[in-house]
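Follow-up to my post from last week.
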Amino acid sequence: MTAASGWGILKAALSARFAMHTIAPSTRLRPSPFHEATLAEGVRGFTVYNHMLMPTDYGDPVGEYQRLLNGVALWDVAVERQVQLAGPDAGRLAQILTPRDLSTLGAGEGRYVALCDHAGTLINDPVLLKLADDRFWLSIADSDALFWARAIAAERGLEVDVSEPDVSPLAVQGPQAEAVVAALFGDWVRGLKRFRFKETAIDGIPVVVARSGWSKQGGFEIYLMDGSRGRALWDLVREAGRPWDIGPGSPNAVERVESGLLSWGGDTDARTNPFEVRLGRFVDLDVPDDVVGIAALRRIAARGPARHQLGVLLEGDEPTPPPIRWREIVKDGLPIGHQTNGVWSYRLRRNIGFALVSVTATPGDDVEVLVDGARIPGRLAELPFL
Amino acid sequence: MTAASGWGILKAALSARFAMHTIAPSTRLRPSPFHEATLAEGVRGFTVYNHMLMPTDYGDPVGEYQRLLNGVALWDVAVERQVQLAGPDAGRLAQILTPRDLSTLGAGEGRYVALCDHAGTLINDPVLLKLADDRFWLSIADSDALFWARAIAAERGLEVDVSEPDVSPLAVQGPQAEAVVAALFGDWVRGLKRFRFKETAIDGIPVVVARSGWSKQGGFEIYLMDGSRGRALWDLVREAGRPWDIGPGSPNAVERVESGLLSWGGDTDARTNPFEVRLGRFVDLDVPDDVVGIAALRRIAARGPARHQLGVLLEGDEPTPPPIRWREIVKDGLPIGHQTNGVWSYRLRRNIGFALVSVTATPGDDVEVLVDGARIPGRLAELPFL
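User reply:
Got it. Predicted complex:
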């Protein structure tokens, strides 16, 4: 079966069940600075993330996937809002908010970090960017980390201003992304290491250019720092990318599952700690005692987490619709956890997903997954799949 | 022009611009316990609220509006999540979180409250329910008040557990709601005053029944306390409501604007304080000094807020599509604030909305509103409209 015919089946299943539901217009769901540009590109579907609309569909899912894997795609990811920490205690607050050691983080460097509450529960997983000793951005996942950071800052009496600046990332992703971004900004971008960034401007539009992005295909995020210039920046990148056949896309559900990238809120629940979802390597247990949640994380590390995150491959060679709820996973007749996402992998030609399961379950184990009332045989696997 | 023909125009304008966009299925956007029931009712559109899907459209907007105004409607409002405060310091935390005096709040009583940050900015506007001296629910608007409450509780060292319980409200709204709820639960519900509630059960389904709801047409909210029984509770209410021709609906954008009900996040921005949006009467300046934000609120009250919330009626007798961004309002050539929502009022036969404008502007003032590049004449008015 070709990827395209797989999509045909999936699309039929979807339209019968879910995809025809529309999203109601509201000022509560803010459009991004790139909204008009994405409308002009023919956007067909959105999700909501950080109280904003994010494009998810331009009507050609297979083409959008292939563009990400083989070419270069342009994504409106303005929903990755920035929580800015500014002032004399900005660095102190940044460290208090995350159990990852930041003592060696330099200006112009970013780091993927866990935010935990006092019980060690994961409440966001942003990229932290250090713009200066007294200015940081948390480029956040889908929870109100702004209020969280403000609460901690104010309760601790820190001298820091916590705000959401006018900053909206535009992602350029795929193996040809570097060529496009270099054509636009210059060859210096080729020397940027992962999560490193630089403040610059293009045609008078202030931006931060970072090697970053929610895919494993490589790429950059251009942080627009003037929301009135969204269309202009989009068009500049679009034009610069023409030789590489750039086109619109969005954070790609299929690629991110194949690549093992975590979606906070989708793959996590109200009691998930970093150790359960492969973020243990970003927890430094010897950070200072005033780091939120560190005492709880030390306890969890000492006894070991109850669950861990694996992959699961389902039997069958026809796509099933993506789940909207976690699916129970059963092993030897007993529930061991849940499948937390699900996609049809174009490369593996299988339905795959993440499994948040008891640590007693290991890769290679045969399991059953409850899919819409049916028990589908499956096998646990290491992440990433590819 | 009839309400129905007004809708025809609006629908045509909408489908050209927005309403055909679909929402992508994802485990990050949780369905409600009533999801399958609403699918069976023919739900057509959703919004996202508190990381969950909420039905907004069953394909008959005029019928849904008329049912709310003249009969009785059933709404899936499970997205009104509860933040539970439980433990010896639950009452103390509740008071710390809101500048409304709770000293006279009894068990079985609820109160509409403002949650503010330390700068006095409104970050949520829940209904607070006191279940017992040591157990409270905040029935929240669309922000992560769970994390906020946890941060404050932990930083202050309070002995209280802050959690999201398995509780999902189902609203029964409209002038016939009392008859339906009395038929189901008994005549005692007729004696419930606004925001009073009682824990009970129906067919073994544990619920809280409250006189409450996000409309001015009267009604109840039935808080389902067992998420596995959503379909059963929906069907019970549907069956009990049959003599009054009950039907599905959702929080109604038109009615709530006509009635002057605030939507946090839609009608507020990053610097809105309670005094600006008609919530000053819910701020008691003499609450204890440890209430979050009270010092800032006292300063704001002393100097007076910069903006206030009015209505605005636009010229023209044809519906315009609802805004997805705030619209600038101009008076005597100068910007004075924004129109924060917009609907076609079936009763007033006008496009109306809320205006968050300088306190120098008053009801009766002639203004201009920037609608998609055009300057539409309008007039400021008192809220509510009706």
